[in-house]
Amino acid sequence: VAVISPQDPVLRIGSSLTATCALSHELGLLSSTLYWTLNGICLSSSTYSMVSPEILSVTLHNLNGSQQQSGDNLVCHGADGRVLAGSCLYVGMPPEKPVNLTCWSRNTKDLSCKWSPGGRGETHIRTKYTLKYKLRWYGREKECENDSTGKQRYFCHIPRNLALFTPYEIWVEAANQLGSATSDITTLDILDVVTTDPPANVQVSRVGDLEDQLTVRWASPPELKDVLFQAKYQIRYRLEDSSEWKVVVDDVGNQTSCRLAGLQPGTVYFVQVRCNPVGIYGSRKAGIWSDWSHPAAASTPSSERLQSGSCNTKPGEQNSTLRRELKQFFGWVRKHAYGCSGMSIKLYDQWRVWLQKTHKTRNQVGKQNLSLSLSLPLSLSSHYLC
């Protein structure tokens, strides 16, 4: 019926284009009766030019990037609106060098990488990104086979057959109909980019009747038992009515429990734990933090006391104001309670429980150490002090 020329051109942003619609002689139509649309919008007749009775041209200046990667629709219509011919315009930019290439391996079993497009990122036309890799000193070049044109355009996953003791060279190539670009090469060892699944079975519980403390326990990821990992953990917590997480700054190390102290009494706390494998197979670099575990929750007993938070990773450590006060209290007891020995800082928690039950304040403890100690029941006094 009719033909548009050029067909499906690929143009840079800012370019100009002159297209023609040539009618078939059998139609019996004149080019003066035709009109043009771009993406369904009529183009001004001032952009038309009648080349001959059967050919009508249109000229477009300073073209913008295509509104869709499948191309913009340039259509030639008859006077009655009938579509006579069409062409797709691909208007965009060549890709720029991809940047921010980072990779990680979950449990040394696979390799995942992500990156960002270079420059402005959007090319307005279909651009293919291909992640390529090879062993640094030998081996042939391979391609990551994931389709990076879908929802995760800048991501690729290599599921198997990875070397653990030889570094890889990894890079990303970007290409479209206007050009191509290649990222910088990243050299990495799988053992240096290891992450694990989050710690499992996270549990939070009260510490007796202590109103400002909770104990957190968790299980190491199973992968830590399969390979020669060492690990360190990090804890964060938040109040039930808050969206702000507080990360415990104490070095939890490789233990699988921790006591949170200095919490608000009568409050529900949500707690999460994550893991970082270090020292795996003699690697000197730390791994990558895992995702946070599923949150676990518990509430502290009710009280009017309010303090600031910390993580008590060593039971014998005096890391709060009350512990310092208690140490002074025990010092007084040693001087005045004859025949007593074996005093332990662990008695602190028991003493505080008793103190809460008597509804005494810390100020009263500081002023009335002697009267409180004498007011203890005989059986309780003998248990705590001797």
Keywords for this entry:
five-stranded mixed sheet; five-stranded antiparallel sheet; mainly beta; Cytokine receptor-like factor 1; elongated; 386 residues; 26 strands; disordered C terminus
What can you tell me about this protein's structure?
This protein is mostly beta strands and 386 residues long. It has helices at 223-226, 321-336, 347-357, 362-367, 369-375, 378-385; strands at residues 2-5, 10-12, 17-23, 35-38, 41-42, 48-52, 55-60, 72-77, 83-92, 99-106, 111-116, 128-135, 142-143, 155-158, 168-176, 179-182, 186-188, 194-195, 200-206, 214-219, 230-239, 246-247, 257-261, 268-278, 296-299, 310-312. It has a five-stranded mixed β-sheet, with no helix packed on it. Strands 12, 13, 15, 16 and 17 form a five-stranded antiparallel β-sheet that branches. It has a four-stranded antiparallel β-sheet with strand order 1-3-7-6, with no helix packed on it. Strand 6 (48-52) and strand 7 form a beta hairpin. This is Cytokine receptor-like factor 1. It comes from Nibea albiflora (Yellow drum).
Secondary-structure topology with pairs:
Blueprint: E1 2-5, E2 10-12, E3 17-23, E4 35-38, E5 41-42, E6 48-52, E7 55-60, E8 72-77, E9 83-92, E10 99-106, E11 111-116, E12 128-135, E13 142-143, E14 155-158, E15 168-176, E16 179-182, E17 186-188, E18 194-195, E19 200-206, E20 214-219, H1 223-226, E21 230-239, E22 246-247, E23 257-261, E24 268-278, E25 296-299, E26 310-312, H2 321-336, H3 347-357, H4 362-367, H5 369-375, H6 378-385
Parallel strand pairs: 2-9, 10-18
Antiparallel strand pairs: 1-3, 3-7, 4-5, 4-8, 6-7, 8-9, 10-11, 11-14, 12-13, 12-15, 15-16, 15-17, 19-20, 20-23, 21-22, 21-24, 23-26, 24-25
